Amino acid sequence: MQALHPRINLKSFITFLAFAVLCFASLVLPFTYRQSPVSLNVGSVSTQDIRAPQTFTFVSDSLTETARDQAEKAVLPVYLAADPAISRQQIENMKGVLNYISSVRADGFATYEQKISDLQALENATITNEIAENLLSFNQDKWQAVQNEALFVLEEVMRSTIREDQITQAKRSVLPLISYSFSSSETEIINTLVTPMVVANSLFSNDKTNEAIEQARAEVEPVTKTYISGETIVSTGQVITPIIWEALQELGLISPQSEILKYVSSGLLVFAVVTMEYLYVLRYRRSLLQYDYKSLLSILGLFVIFLFLARIFILNRAVVPYIFPIAAFGLTISSLVNYEVGILFSIGLSTFTAYGQSNSVELTLFYILATIVAIFVLQRGRRITIFFTAGLIQGLVGAATVVAYRLISAYFDMEGILTLIGASFLNGMASVSLTLILQYALAALLGKTTALQLMDLSRPDHPLLQLIMTSAPGSYQHSLQVANLAEQAARNIDADPLLTRVGALYHDAGKALNPAFFIENQVSGNIDTHDDMDPVDSASTIIKHVHDGIKLAREYHLPPQVEAFISEHHGSSVTKYQMSKAKEIHAMDGKFDPAKFAYPGPNPRSRETAILMMADKVEARAKAEIPKNDEDLTNLINSSIDSILREGYLDNTSLTLKNIQTIKESFFNTLKNTYHPRIQYPK
Q1: Alpha carbons 371 and 342: distance in angstroms, whole number
Q2: In 10 A of CB 460, how many CB atoms?
Q3: Pairwise CA distance, residues 241 & 433, whole Å
Q4: What is the DSSP letter of 598?
Q5: Ramachandran quadrant class, 79 (left: phi over 0; alpha: psi -120 to 50; beta: rest)
Q6: Model pLDDT for residues 1-56, shown as the tens digit of each residue
Q7: Residues 48-66: what's their mean pLDDT?
Q8: Is residue 582 a contact partner of residue 544, using CB atoms and an 8 Å limit?
């Protein structure tokens, strides 16, 4: 009987500890983990091809900065508006130069040579000897006209906006503005005097320019970069550029985190998942630790194999993760062990497989949802068609998950979505096909039986069933009744109803070799063959049907799981009638040996064989005693099962007291419909 408070034992702890270590290694080994963050930098060389696992768009800082630099270069220098004060100042400067020339011309004390020298001393004009001589030769009227023209031309030029880069152009405009009424020598003098006075009246503004630059950079929209699903981001041997580095960072392949943090995060995830699975097995599937340890090792081993292969094949791939048949693991475990076990371990496998991938959330749900739905559809997989139905529905659910995530993606890629939809359905077919292969392979290894095998064994045309039916029809009918009882009870306590039914059909197969020694095969009114037999011989003949049944099971190649029903349905119980008779005969001579009346066993070691033991006894008594009412039937069921419990025949099973009560109620409901009162028809 299952303990209410299961305790941790060393064997189970070590098993799951080793399992955790293998899972951790699968997550952190270099060839099963994404590129190490510290080995990727701008300017370094990539050691592998990395492709986009999905279509994604991200804001590129490097491309955005390049666009902003280009916008900055396009900004022209900003100048202030023309300043009238500068123009007026130059006019005043021109007047000063003209007054100076006038004072030199009117200086009566200076010699001619001295006047020439004084004129050439002007700082704001280049006065040659020829120009100086011409200035001195002008009469007052002509000189006044030259002065007026010089001031006029300078004023006209300075009316325009002149920037620093426009000074040369402005100085060239002086000459055309001089009136054609002046001679060439006079024109040269006016040009010589005016040109140096032309300066910029619109000054460069550093602040305004900086503001314009900042505005231009601010107006540049962030530049995005898009990678299509499957597109190569970087090839082996390619130098990591800033844009490639940003893409890898967006995918989560580059992180400032250290290797230590990677190990810590992986360890924490392994601890959480493995602890959940360990506690579940310890509390709800303790039989895997006690009587089916080989199955547990197979589950954990297959888990690690799937995880290891998945981490290798889906690394930095776009479509492969959606094709890899993760669901085959859960479907295989569900069909051979239990659907709850399959679901729980599939959740852990899906979490580990998608861990560290750029689209881990999407992948995790893709695996979990598709697997769970497929398990619910497949169940025990009793028909080939149900496998492919499960595969199609798995593909449909996977496709729905992909579309749900991709429709809200920043970049809508219809081609990529259609590709992943196709990958989802391919995943479904691959998963169920692989399940069929793994199912038979593991069943042979574990000595288990697939649902398809059980369905074949349950067919009435099976050679061994035909032998029982023709040689021992009474035993066959008894087996059918027991099968009905046991199957329903197994279903009610969530045991394996199909295995229970098939085991019940074959549990008395040995009676087919000596049918006449069993009362159900004897014709009513005939002499019982045991009446004239010694009790020891009689018991031996009856007990022998277990040995004969095992012999037939092996001759007809029945699976070990079905053979267990033959060897365990009586456990180590005794033939009470013969033993009681032997006690009477040998009460005085001391030759009584109780061991000769005991079945070889073993006692039931599974819930299914335990149900058969109880159903076998209850059905036999019910047929013999024919209960008249509900109370009689209830008392019969309770006394039969309680006696089995008292003898300890169920101690090696995982049945709880609640299970026992459910089985009793199931037996009652089934037998009530068999032994209900019937209408007495007139003769």
Answers
A1: 9
A2: 10
A3: 44
A4: B
A5: beta
A6: 444 344 557 888 898 999 999 999 988 876 555 544 435 677 777 766 777 766 77
A7: 77
A8: no
What pLDDT sits at residue 53?
Answer: 67
Q: Quick count: other Cβ atoms within 10 Å of Cβ 445?
A: 11
Query: Which run of H or E residues covers position 234?
Result: strand 232-234
In which band, very low, low, confident or very high, does the pLDDT at 319 lie, cut at 50, 70 and 90?
Answer: confident
Is domain 456-672 given the CATH code 1.10.3210 in the classification?
Answer: yes
pTM across the whole model: 0.60
For residue 559, which of 652, 439, 477, 471 has the smallest C-alpha distance? 439
Tell me the DSSP string of 36-102.
PGGG--TT-B-SS-EE-SS-EEEE-HHHHHHHHHHHHHTPPPPBPPP-HHHHHHHHHHHHHHHHHHH
DSSP conformation class of 232: E
- Retrieve residue 600's tokens: 């070889």
Residue 245 has pLDDT above 50, yes or no: yes
- Closest to 427 measured CA to CA, from 362, 371, 356: 371
Res 367 pLDDT > 80 = yes
| Bridge partners (DSSP) listed for residue 45 | 239
* Element spanning 612, H or E: helix 607-625
In terms of phi and psi (left: phi > 0; alpha: psi -120 to 50; beta: otherwise), the region of 381 is: left
Task: Give the per-residue pLDDT at 573.
Answer: 85
Give the distance from CA 278 to its chain's centroid: 21
Min mean pLDDT across 6-15, 414-423, 539-548 is at: 6-15
Give the N- to C-terminal CA distance of the chain in Å, as an integer: 52
Contact 431, 331 (CB under 8 A): yes
| DSSP H or E segment with residue 233 | strand 232-234
CA distances, 210 to each of 75, 206, 315 (Å): 9, 6, 48
Reduced to 3 states, what is the DSSP secondary structure of residue 444?
helix
Average the pLDDT over 507-511 and give the result.
Answer: 89
Q: Give me the helices (H) in 83-165, please.
A: 84-106, 112-120, 129-137, 140-159
DSSP 3-state of 496 = coil
How many CB atoms sit inside 10 A of residue 82's CB?
18
- Asked if 546 and 433 count as a contact pair (C-beta separation under 8 A), the reply is no
pLDDT at position 386: 83
Q: Which of 101-110, 245-254, 299-308, 432-441 is predicted with the least confidence, judged by mean pLDDT?
A: 245-254
Residue 613's nearest CA partner among 552, 660, 678 is 660
Tell me the domain boundaries of the chain: 10-50+255-448, 84-197, 456-672
